[in-house]
Design brief:
Number of strands of chain A: 11
Strand content of chain B: 15-25%
Strand content of chain A: 25-35%
Largest sheet of chain B: 3 strands, antiparallel
Structural class of chain B: alpha+beta
Mean pLDDT of chain B: 82
Helix content of chain B: 25-40%
Number of strands of chain B: 4
Distance between the termini of chain A: 59 Å
Largest interface: A-B, 63 and 47 residues
Radius of gyration of chain B: 24 Å
Largest sheet of chain A: 7 strands, mixed, barrel
Mean pLDDT of chain A: 88
Radius of gyration of chain A: 19 Å
Low-confidence stretches of chain A: none
Helix content of chain A: under 10%
Oligomer: heterodimer
Number of helices of chain A: 2
Strand order of the largest sheet of chain B: 1-2-3
Shape of chain B: elongated
Low-confidence stretches of chain B: 97-102
Order of helices and strands of chain B: EEEHHHE
Distance between the termini of chain B: 45 Å
Chain lengths: 157, 102
């Protein structure tokens, strides 16, 4: 089938690449179908593109690539929704937010990972219980602010 | 919406198997205890709202151009292999002119 996308043009896809969100990505209840688009194989970022709305696509990645130590448990009732029977079937991705024109301020959402069952392609956005996980974790270190004078630089500590 | 007033120590029973109890009040805060079966999810509303907001920002406004710039900021030594992602079915589409959005 053909789908339209605003970033990648028209794509010819097979039904079996479509992820069906049994519970929606929060804020996108009207869009249950997504595909993963790889438009730069050398890049750690891929795109989760909505099948039914050409304008909606999320940049996604795996936190491990950025040196982030990240793990979580999928609660039983959520695992049931995806019909997960073993952790080998599970894959997770995290949504990245890049403020317009400011890639250095890119952040990743660690509190709400996207989890996918590789076998049946059911998916959902899992909201983790751990309050300490940030919704906006910086991917790149913050640059220290430049000070005007050497004296100011000394006192800024 | 059902509106009820409760005193500290009083409970509400929902659906036969969910119990809400008012534990303490302090100033304008209320401490609430909830007993519910494992299959019932309970979240603070602001967590949901925060995730929703981040999703909305990300889904609409990130342009391919900005993403390319982010990739360029990465340490050249890292291998860009993401073995986990290779297990997922995906559609490969390389743009002829990188960063050009329609």
């Amino acid at each position: 089938m053909k789908i339209k996308t605003s970033r990648f043009g028209e794509l010819e896809i097979n039904e079996n690449v479509i992820f069906n969100f049994v519970e929606p990505i929060l804020g996108y209840e009207r869009l249950p179908r997504f595909i993963l688009v790889d438009n730069a194989p050398e890049s750690p970022f891929k795109w989760l593109q909505a099948v039914d709305d050409e304008k909606i696509a999320f940049p996604v990645t795996v936190p491990g690539y950025f040196g982030l130590d990240y793990q979580f448990t999928v609660p039983d009732q959520e695992a049931k929704k995806l019909e997960l029977t073993s952790s080998n079937e599970l894959l997770s991705l995290n949504i990245v937010c890049i403020p317009a024109g400011k890639p250095e301020d890119a952040t990743i959402n660690l509190l709400g990972p996207i989890i996918i069952n590789l076998i049946n392609r059911k998916a959902m956005q899992l909201v983790l219980i751990d309050d300490n996980l940030p919704v906006k974790k910086r991917l790149f270190a913050e640059k220290p602010k430049e000070s005007n004078t050497p004296e100011e630089a000394m006192t800024k500590k | 919406m059902l509106v009820l007033t409760r005193k500290v120590g009083q409970k509400l029973i929902i659906n036969d198997n969910i119990e809400v109890i008012i534990l303490e009040t302090k100033g304008d805060s209320v401490k609430i205890g909830i007993k519910a079966p494992k299959n019932v999810s309970i979240f603070r509303e602001e967590i949901y709202e925060e995730i929703k907001k981040a999703n909305l920002q990300s889904g609409k406004s990130v342009m391919v151009n900005d993403l390319y710039k982010a990739v360029n900021m990465l340490d050249g030594n890292k291998s860009s292999a993401l073995p986990d992602l290779d297990k997922l079915p995906k559609v490969v589409k390389t743009l002829k002119e990188p960063g050009v959005d329609r």
